[in-house]
Design a protein that fits this description.
By secondary structure, the protein is of the alpha/beta class. Helix content is 39%, strand content 21%. Helix 2 packs across helix 9, helix 2 (41-56) packs antiparallel against helix 10 and helix 4 (96-102) crosses helix 11. The chain is globular, with a radius of gyration of 21 Å.
Length: 312
């Protein structure tokens, strides 16, 4: 019924003519490019989406293609240069998507994509080893000689750390790690003084008292760790979250793009999707395509300011 209603609406709008017909789409499997390794949060989000979409929409089948490397850049570029026929879509994550643009390394721009919408987020935070004397952001702001871990140059962690340095008038010895596993090990082993990282990476260790989160870099406290004050509460207006959304290559026919957007919105509203996401510690932040594009444009402008002040 949903497919027939949508096709009728396209016919009324005069969009049902031409070679790319939404009522005939898809006729083969759709590739989802995931710009990270299998098993991570982005990959898990894509697989849950595919599972629910295949249940809800007849004829929709998805194949996951993990293209890792260069902080997502290889995967982002693969999506951008894919044939815009609706049979390749992909996940993107921030701020890496825009960080590669402002650094001049990317072969794509935001105009290279049809933005379908955002699905989730992973709020940023500041964590310290369990026995650390650092208990607040004021404590963190006192030491220019502190070693602080971040998950790579140009990551959300890196940008949040640079923003904090600017707000606090401090300069850290930033230690870029090769991934969240190395980052977490550095905190648990007491090898760094602090780490800017994401909630999914350290919430378990915080709850088991193996590490301590001293600030959430969000506007409001998280219901998952209500004991942790925000940076704003502590006098530091430093906000950061990693988002994870879906895009297609620019140039996808309008009726196919509308169909993809509809599928994404319908999956995000599905109770089973919500339940599976929660069970996998995926924090949902639904945004429509236009809203997510506006978010990305603002984020790119803000990231450009950080890059101009401290190029990487």
């Amino acid at each position: 019924m949903l497919k027939h209603t949508f096709a009728a609406g396209l016919a009324v709008l005069g969009l049902a003519a031409g070679p790319a017909l939404a009522q005939d789409y898809p006729t083969k499997s759709i590739e989802i490019i995931v710009p990270s390794s299998a098993g991570g949060s982005t990959d898990t989000t894509a697989r849950i989406f595919a599972e629910i979409a295949e249940k809800k929409f007849d004829g929709f089948n998805f194949v996951i293609n993990n293209i890792k490397g260069s902080g997502g850049q290889k995967g982002f570029e693969a999506i951008a240069r894919a044939k815009p026929d609706g049979y390749t879509i992909g996940m993107v994550f921030t701020p890496q998507l825009v960080a590669h643009i402002v650094s001049g390394r990317a072969s794509y721009t935001l105009d290279s994509f049809h933005i379908m919408g955002n699905m989730g987020e992973d709020p940023a935070l500041v964590a310290v080893p369990k026995d650390s004397p650092i208990e607040t952001l004021d404590d963190l702001a006192k030491g220019d000689d502190l070693t602080v871990a971040v998950n790579g140059i140009g990551s959300d962690d890196f940008i949040a750390a640079k923003n904090f340095e600017d707000a606090a008038g401090v300069s850290f010895n930033l230690l870029p790690t090769k991934g969240s596993t190395e980052q977490k090990s550095a905190i648990l082993g007491g090898h760094v003084d602090a780490s800017f990282m994401n909630l999914t990476q350290i919430i378990g260790q915080h709850k088991s008292d193996d590490a301590r989160i001293i600030a959430m870099l969000t506007r409001d406290r998280s219901d998952l760790v209500p004991d942790v004050p925000t940076g704003v509460e502590q006098g530091y207006d430093v906000l950061m979250t990693a988002t994870r959304g879906f895009v297609a290559p620019a140039g996808v026919p309008d009726d196919i793009a509308a169909r993809l957007d509809e599928v994404l919105a319908d999956v995000m509203a599905d109770p089973e999707f919500t339940q599976k996401a929660e069970a996998s510690s995926i924090y949902l932040l639904p945004m429509s395509g236009p809203d997510y594009l506006a978010y990305l444009e603002t984020l790119q402008a803000d990231t450009q300011k950080v890059f101009d002040a401290a190029p990487w």
